[in-house]
Amino acid sequence: MRQHTQATRRQILMTGALLATGLGIGREAAAQEFPKGPVKIIIPFAPGGPTDTVGRLIAQKLQDIWGQPVIVDYKPGAGTAIGVDFVAKSQPDGLTFGMVNSSFAVNPSLRRSLPYDTTKDLAGITQIANLQLAMVARPDAPFNTVPELIAYAKKNPGKLTYGTPGAGSTTHLGAELLKREAGFDMLHSPFKGSAPAHTELMGGRIDIVVDPFLSVLPYVKAGRMKMIATLGDKRVPGFDYPIVAETLPGFSVNALLGFVAPHGTPPAIVRKIQADTEKVLRQPDMRKRIEEQGMEVVASEPEQFDAFVQSEMKRWARVIQESGIQAE
């Protein structure tokens, strides 16, 4: 009787193993055949700008690889929360996924009533790129470098005003982090986008602007703004501008750009999207186009992107709490 029971258990275990193997093979086969229909990429921003340009370029390249339509669908608003929520509530079949920026990691602390849970309702596919940020001053500012800026701000507390494209933006948080780590203060002046911040700086009504590198570069070249430093962990390739980390070792702030999928999307399909996106990003012409938008290609694995988002969420939660930043 005992031998019969043991034999039955072995049969059950073997059957379970075979079923699991079959399911695994089935999932892999489904991923290899993906996609079997049109794919939609949700972009939670308005059309235009470097992030949209990169999203459309990738969509076209993926369409060429997959032989299926890849449609870009814009759902802007609420600091990207509207578009990200649409992705979170989509069918987890890989046919709908979305582009996110740094707001994805900032919003959980900045916006208390998000209609989705960032870590439970969404899964990372890949970090596409880092967007370089820069700090510029008006040409007649009485400082030219980060050490000079810090020294001036400490000698003149409350005198400096800096502008960004909006409260809670990565540029805003990056400036607040710089203030805290360097031990000085300056007043934040949020604007509805980059253009009005630029106008106020060039008009002499504010002292500094923190903005994407590519956005301010033409004005720096024209002598209408003065580059103080970029905020990444290394100098922008092709330019000799200093970085903040040369004064404050370890300081680094970039704006991320990535793809996320609804939670529950089969891992094999997530990896298929990641692998094909990485293939696109590694193409020389594509890399060149992305770098022309002021970005650095990353092409991370899904697990790496999830871990990075988690670390960014913790980092910015601390800055938001300590600085008392609120969404506009």
Can you walk me through this structure?
- It is a single chain.
- Helix content is 46%, strand content 18%.
- It has 11 helices and 11 strands.
- Strands 2-1-3-10-4-11 form a 6-stranded mixed sheet, sandwiched between helices.
- The radius of gyration is 23 Å and the shape is globular.
Task: Tell me how many strands there are.
Answer: 11
Structural class: alpha/beta
Strand order of the largest sheet: 2-1-3-10-4-11
The mean pLDDT is 90
Our Rg estimate from Cα atoms comes to 23 Å
Distance between the termini: 73 Å
Q: Could you say which overall geometry the principal axes of the C-alpha atoms support?
A: globular
The biggest beta sheet reads: 6 strands, mixed
- The number of helices is 11
Order of helices and strands: HEHEHEHEEHEHEHEHEEHHEH
- Poorly predicted ranges (pLDDT <50, ≥5 residues)? none
Strand content: 15-25%
Into which percent range does the helicity of residues fall?
Answer: 40-55%
